[in-house]
Amino acid sequence: MASGAVVNLTEGKVWNHVLRMLGPFSIAVIALISTGIVDTIYLGNLIDVSRPNLGRFALAALGVAFPITFVGNSVNIGLGAGTMSAISRALGQGDYQKAKRHGAAAIMFGLLIMTCLISFLYLLMPLLLGLTNESNEVLKMAKDYLVISLPGLAIVSVAMMSNNILRAGGEALLPSSIMITGAVINIILDPFLIFGWGPFPRLEVQGAALATVVGNVIAALFGLYVILYHRKAVTFVNMTK
Known about the structure:
This protein has 6 helices and no strands. The protein is mostly helical. Helix 3 (96-130) packs antiparallel against helix 4 (136-168) and helix 5 (173-195) packs antiparallel against helix 6. The chain is elongated and about 65 Å long. It starts with 13 loop residues before the first helix and ends in an 11-residue tail after the last helix.
């Protein structure tokens, strides 16, 4: 990481640093929460004459799938916290090369862990869904949602690691912009993919999952660009040193 991009958190008043980082991060969290709210609003308003309970079933499917995706998101949050801790300590020591290696290792480790977890959740999916007392139609919709959203957890990992690599250096605006970008893309795509607006097919629950994945892909690409080229915050060379 370029030393000029790092904010020295050991100098100045603590509250100044807290408030400086809290504002952008709060906006990013609100944006992320809004994506879930928008999903439920659109899915709850799905209408099909041949399926009078479509909206209710879609919301039920989302509720069934949520605990499974929540496990993956929680693991990503934990990996991100560990990433920020390791990198911030290296930066505090003034070892910028070590911080860059930690950042690269965090991205690779996150992808490895999430690949294993996603595979495990796929294997457990029939059992976990079978534990609910929902109808076959709800379970089918939940499975359709998970088939798309579970692989997206690996993409979330890349965005999460990129976010925390920047945050470890005391940055506030850039990491928050990564989260906000993904959320905005998700919200924009939702009605097009759920209802089939314009040239897009009507995908209903799958559309909500796909919009989330696309938003996360763009956020991950944006995050990678920032940490690799703009901030030069990671290096995959001599990672074992």
